[in-house]
Specification:
heterodimer, A: alpha/beta, TIM Barrel, 9-stranded parallel sheet, 51% helix, B: alpha/beta, 6-stranded mixed sheet, 4-stranded antiparallel sheet, 16 helices, 14 strands, globular
Chain lengths: 272, 399
């Protein structure tokens, strides 16, 4: 059983929802990435999404863009990200870790080499934002054969046919983008999420994570009542961005812990 | 004559092109594809576009035999397709007119565009004004500073110009930002992309709208020169003017197709914008094509004297034409382009855009080695009035 699957099953058994924070590898500095990921886990993260910096992050809002630019300024490329993952795994062999990024850096490394090295570094899943399933059949097969879950996005505009098409190839979890827009936008529409989740459930038995636009404990709690996982990226990065480097760990920890508490409250309510 | 049948249904030109976008844009692109498929064969739409191109844009543009310049160079006869005579001074409006009409058919009242030097932005703002649409143009803040006259021009035309502060603050970042706007406002908004790049159907659609250039040439050349040219030469940044003049000639294999990229300060210096000559395939802006990138797959910054060629990618159909050997791609540096720019002013009384001057420079380079009755057709894609500051500075003149 994969680490992602095991984690979601354990959560389901204990009646809890998954909390999935996102940070960009190499921001604010490569040396802080592994400590920050450990801090996120300590604060209650169930799965980690680690961003691979790219020069042209078309689907990302200003916060994630700036974070990627800082990482690029630090010279962090895909092979450095894999080294950071390996170093994280020295102390944590349980927490699932998912890389999120864009196709070009993966293709520049070579897809075969990437999945091989990512697999052995301890990566559990990969989200390639600009790889829709029909353009990445080869990658999907390579990832699966190396024990890596290819994770796909679904949007409010995805048709039923599209949902079924993606459900056929996806593994790990489904990532529902809760708004038409970019990461970090501030207007999540809970009733839209509530309307869409059943369509996803009908097409797939995979756990469903919701992200893009979840900013605080209140929106996280409302989403947790509907989905299996809540993804928070831009708000975590804002904590890092506005903190002095030596305070970043404490800041993300405090922020994430507040979300964790809200989620556990929601789970208690859902199972009451 | 057999036309080749690309792209395929999903927008592929061999291994290039495609739809490499986040799921949030998939539906919008499907909707655009369906609307374009309806309109491209609708006699009413075709008649409407034709009428606008004639009465508003000023088509057909003439082909002109540059006799004095040809004589001076000695060798082949050089003919110029005068896209500089279009309304707004470049070929860009052929495409913005087509897309604006499509936007109207789709009931979208707001259009957005990206721009580098500002020519596409001006052409988009122009058609938006013509049809009473709201228009927002994204432009890298570096370019806003360099092209203040075009920024003012767009504002006069009623467009809002949004400076883009991310990444390298140039054309590629403006394109990223336009995509982000589109994904956020997809219900109300039509994205008028300016070149034969981006996700399917843009490379095909922009090519189709620009093909009017080559179609006119096919009718005009026999009239003027007695036959089709031996070679068609066009500059390539994203590649829309080149695709527009190449496409009706692709199946006519007697005609050489030559795309000229910007070698900037020289290919060896790394300061250039020659994606086909010096790049390698990758994925950017929704399609697979040749890209200028570093070893980590990060897109690198480009350099050219002409802002319109300053793009690290290139349309996927050019990538295919290169690999298949149907078209040749070469590069011309800043100094060579500048000399052709000055010569055309002197000997023909035509001020070409610095972009088009790259194509002219390559024609001047090969003409002497060709017989007197050989014919080179150069796409003079735009006029050079916008380049006065740059040319004067480079030629050491104080304005």
């Amino acid at each position: 059983m994969s680490r992602i699957q095991a984690r979601f099953e354990a959560l389901r058994r204990s009646g809890r929802k998954a909390l999935i924070p996102y940070i960009t590898a190499g921001d604010p500095s490569p040396g802080l990435t592994v400590p920050l990921v450990h801090a996120l886990v300590e604060a209650g993260a169930d799965v980690i999404e680690l961003g691979v910096p790219f020069s042209d992050p078309m689907a990302d809002g200003p916060v994630v863009q700036r974070s990627g630019e800082r990482a690029l300024k630090n010279g962090v490329g895909l092979s450095d990200v894999l080294t950071l993952v390996k170093s994280f795994r020295e102390k944590d062999s349980n927490t699932p870790l998912v890389l999120m990024g864009y196709a070009n850096p993966l293709e520049a490394m070579g897809l075969e080499r990437f999945v091989r090295e990512a697999g052995s570094a301890g990566v559990d899943g990969v989200i390639v934002v600009d790889y829709p399933p029909e353009e990445c059949a080869e990658f999907t097969a390579l990832a699966k054969s190396n024990g890596i879950d290819p994770i796909f996005l679904l949007a409010p505009t995805s048709t039923d046919e599209r949902i079924r098409q993606i459900a056929r190839v996806a593994s790990g979890y489904l990532y529902y983008v809760s708004l038409t827009g970019i990461t970090g936008a501030g207007h999540i529409d809970v009733s839209d999420v509530a309307a869409h989740i059943p369509k996803l459930r009908a097409a797939s038995s995979l756990p469903i994570g919701v992200g893009f636009g979840i900013r605080d404990a209140a929106s996280a709690r409302r989403i947790a009542e509907l989905a299996d996982a809540v993804v928070i990226g831009s708000r975590v990065i804002q904590e890092i961005e506005s903190a002095a480097p030596e305070e970043a760990e404490a800041r993300v920890k405090a922020f994430l812990a507040s979300i964790r508490a809200a989620l556990d409250g929601a789970a208690a309510k859902a199972f009451a | 004559m057999q036309m080749y049948d690309l792209p395929d249904r999903r927008g592929h030109f061999g291994p290039y092109g495609g739809v490499f976008v986040a799921e949030t844009l998939t539906h919008a692109l499907q909707e655009l594809r369906a609307a374009y498929e309806r309109c491209r064969t609708d006699p009413e739409f075709i008649a409407e576009l034709k009428s606008e191109l004639k009465h508003y844009v000023g088509r057909p543009t003439p082909v002109y035999h540059a006799r004095r310049w040809s004589e001076l160079i000695g060798g082949a006869q050089i003919y110029l397709k005068r896209e500089d005579l279009n309304h707004t001074g470049a070929h860009k409006i052929n495409n913005t007119m087509g897309q604006a009409l499509l936007a109207r058919h789709m009931g979208k009242r707001r259009v957005i565009a990206e721009t580098g030097a500002g020519m596409h932005g001006v052409a988009a703002a122009t058609v938006a004004a013509r049809f009473g649409m709201q228009c927002v143009v994204y432009m890298g803040s570096e370019d806003v500073a360099r092209q203040s006259v075009n920024v003012y021009r767009m504002k006069l035309l009623g467009a809002q110009v949004v400076p883009v502060e991310s990444g390298s603050r140039t054309l590629k970042d403006a394109l990223n930002e336009a995509m982000r706007d589109w994904v956020t406002n997809v219900e109300s908004t039509f994205y008028i992309l300016g070149t034969v790049a981006g996700p399917h159907p843009y490379p095909m659609m922009v090519r189709d709208f620009q093909s009017v250039i080559g179609e006119e040439c096919r009718a005009q050349m026999p009239e003027l020169a007695g036959r089709q040219p031996d070679a068609v030469i066009a500059c390539v940044g994203g590649g829309s003017n080149a695709m527009g003049i190449f496409y009706p000639y692709v199946a006519d294999e007697k005609v050489r197709l030559i795309g000229v990229e910007a070698a900037g300060e020289g290919l060896a210096t790394g300061r250039h914008a020659a994606s086909l000559c010096a790049g390698r395939p990758g994925v950017l802006h929704g399609n697979r094509t040749y890209l200028l990138q570093d070893a980590n797959g990060q897109i690198t910054e480009t350099h050219s004297i002409s802002a319109g060629l300053d793009y690290p990618g290139v349309g996927p159909e050019h990538a295919w034409l290169k690999d298949s050997g149907r078209a040749e791609y070469v590069a011309v540096n800043d100094d060579e382009a500048l000399k052709a720019f000055a010569d055309l002013c002197h000997y023909e009384g035509i001020i070409p855009a610095l972009e088009s001057a790259h194509a002219l420079a390559y024609a001047a380079k090969i003409a002497p080695s060709l017989p007197k009755d050989a014919i080179l057709l150069v796409n003079l894609s735009g006029r050079g009035d916008k380049d006065m500051q740059t040319a004067a500075r480079k030629l050491g003149v104080q304005l």
